[in-house]
Design brief:
The complex is a heterodimer of chains A (about 280) and B (about 230). Chain A is α/β, with parallel strands linked by helices. Chain A has four domains: about 100 residues, Conserved hypothetical protein from pyrococcus furiosus pfu- 392566-001, ParB domain (Alpha-Beta Complex), CATH 3.90.1530.10; about 45 residues; about 60 residues; about 30 residues, no CATH class. Helix content of chain A is about 55%, strand content about 10%. Chain A has a five-stranded mixed β-sheet, with helices on both faces. In chain A, helix 1 crosses helix 2. With about 230 residues, chain B is mainly alpha-helical. Chain B is built from twelve helices and three strands; from the N terminus they run αααααααααβαββαα. The longest helix of chain B is centred in the N-terminal third of the chain and has 23 residues. Strand 6 of chain A pairs parallel with strand 1 of chain B.
């Protein structure tokens, strides 16, 4: 949970004039703000508001900053326009003291993460903000937001190092995150190369993607074209089938039972010893 | 009368549950084969759910998660041409069925054909599903080819002697037939030694053919190549 334990949300629910509320820049929801607001307004009209919004400030001293419940607030604004005299001019709210903007931001993010799928860019921006606030302590960010450390690191890596085109693609389609990570890993810090790889990796098979990362990360100086060419080249391993005489197979079976070893291991050991003994294999 | 019908229904649910238990908790019997086909198991799960009320109740009684129970039910989402192949156990892998069921129905017969023909393994069927999402309008057969040809693979080489190189064509045809089209190439290694390279599926077919004829693998290769394989 957030650092400032004393700055918790107060339990009392107050009816607050919608016109006394301003949307604070601490609210993490900056994208898709109007998505489904009309549906939410219909639902509130039918069932009422089930969860109050959270405001920063002191009750009785407007204006208040909205930190949690931006869509509910916008739905109320619409309902007030639709039905000016039906009581939608006041929205139920709880308060948090006006001390810490960071606390408000964390609260807003946690609330959104727990409740709905927040826009990727909103989470990424909030994670980066906290990481800077916590002096680059990613574990503390993870603990605060109750996210796995690896997830926080992924967000940071992409926010700090991904080329703008990749970030843009990710904002449009968050399911591309694994491909963005692959392109970045294969490009080893070269942003132009990461862009070139990303736009190709999207159409690759899983096997090609794996080779792209393996080859790109082990050959940081290779051009994007070279990495792509290697990715598309399947590796073929040839195994020689050893078909043994019956008496040898029988002996191997006996050895397998007596030594409790797999016959492949026995055959390998025997070959190794024989070749080494004859000087064909260095010990 | 009503009580007898209820008892019969309860007995059916119990029998179905027993079948599900016998077929789903395979981790307790490593190496054992599931006694029934995936379609039979899905039918039993449906009967058990009808008798016990919910999937959750059945999963609890069987001792597996609801998620796992639903995986078995994925067979219900298969194309009508594919289901009989699962019933006949030509396709018997739960993962294969699961990934195939996640794909559009019109794609499924081609995928099933590729599985039975040994072109796609479970991992490859899994890799095919996201590719289909990425290219929804592409010909499924082309996507199958892309996946099958893009995977790192192990091939298996069998070395045999051949004194008369003019017989090579006939030998290659024989190996191709015996391996069920699993022959990749036949190459000269210099002198009278040749190397036949097979896919995993091809090698499996060769071994199976040898067993059917009650021959050792070595002797079977010797017979097909019409030569004295030196056993490599």
């Amino acid at each position: 949970m957030p650092e400032c334990e004393s700055e918790t949300v107060q339990p009392e629910i107050r009816p607050v004039l919608v016109t006394d509320i301003k949307v604070d820049d601490t609210n993490v929801r900056q994208h898709d703000i109007d998505k489904d607001v009309d549906n939410l307004a219909d639902s509130i009209e039918e069932h009422g508001l089930l969860q109050p919004v959270v405001l920063m400030g002191v009750w009785g001293e407007p204006k208040y900053s909205l930190i949690v419940g931006q869509r509910r607030f916008r739905a109320f604004q619409r309902l007030r326009e639709r039905h000016p005299n039906d009581g939608f001019d006041r929205i139920p709210a709880r308060f948090v003291p006006p001390k810490s903007k960071d606390y408000a931001k964390v609260l807003s993010l946690i609330e959104n993460l727990q409740r709905v799928e927040v826009n990727y860019a909103d989470v990424a921006a909030a994670v980066t903000h906290l990481w800077e606030k916590y002096k680059h302590d990613d574990k503390k960010v993870a603990q605060t937001l109750n996210l796995p450390v690896q997830t926080v690191r992924d967000y940071l890596r992409i926010e700090l190092y991904a080329p703008p085109k990749l970030k843009l693609a990710l904002r449009k389609d968050p399911s591309l995150k694994p491909d963005v990570k692959r392109a970045m890993k294969a490009a080893q810090g070269d942003q132009k190369k990461a862009e070139e790889l990303f736009f190709q990796v999207k159409g690759m098979t899983q096997f090609e993607k794996r080779r792209l990362v393996d080859y790109g990360s082990s050959h940081p100086k290779a051009s994007a074209d070279a990495v792509l060419a290697e990715a598309k080249k399947p590796k073929v391993q040839e195994t020689i089938v050893l078909a043994l005489d019956d008496h040898l197979r029988g002996a191997l079976s006996k050895a397998q039972a007596a030594l409790a070893m797999d016959w492949v291991d026995i055959a390998n050991t025997a070959l190794h010893e024989w070749l080494a003994g004859k000087g064909f294999l260095k010990q | 009368m009503q009580s007898a019908a209820r008892k019969q229904s309860s007995d059916e649910a119990d029998r179905a549950l027993a079948l599900v238990v016998a077929n789903t908790r395979m981790a307790e019997r490593p190496g054992a084969k599931r006694p029934h086909s995936l379609t039979r198991i899905a039918e039993a799960i449906k009967s058990a759910v009808a008798g016990y009320g919910t999937e959750r109740e059945v999963a609890g009684r069987v001792g597996i998660s609801t998620e796992m129970l639903r995986r078995f039910l994925s067979v219900e989402n298969l194309h009508s041409e594919v289901k009989p192949l699962v019933t006949a156990r030509q396709i018997d892998s739960l993962n294969m069925v699961l990934y195939m069921a996640s794909m559009p129905k019109p794609d499924q017969p081609a995928v099933a054909e590729a599985i039975i023909g040994g072109r796609l393994s479970g991992t490859e069927v899994r890799a095919l599903a996201p590719l289909r999402n990425r290219f929804p309008k592409a010909d499924i057969r082309k996507l199958i080819d892309r996946v099958a040809n893009s995977r790192d693979r192990t091939v298996y080489a069998v070395v045999f002697p051949l004194t008369n190189s003019r017989q090579l064509r006939a030998v290659a045809d024989g190996l191709k037939q015996a391996s069920g089209d699993g022959l990749v190439s036949v190459r000269s290694m210099g002198g009278q030694r040749y190397k036949a390279v097979f896919t995993r599926h091809g090698l499996r077919n060769l071994r199976s053919a040898a067993r059917k004829q009650k021959l050792s693998f070595r002797n079977y290769v010797k017979r097909v190549t019409g030569s004295n394989s030196d056993g490599e």
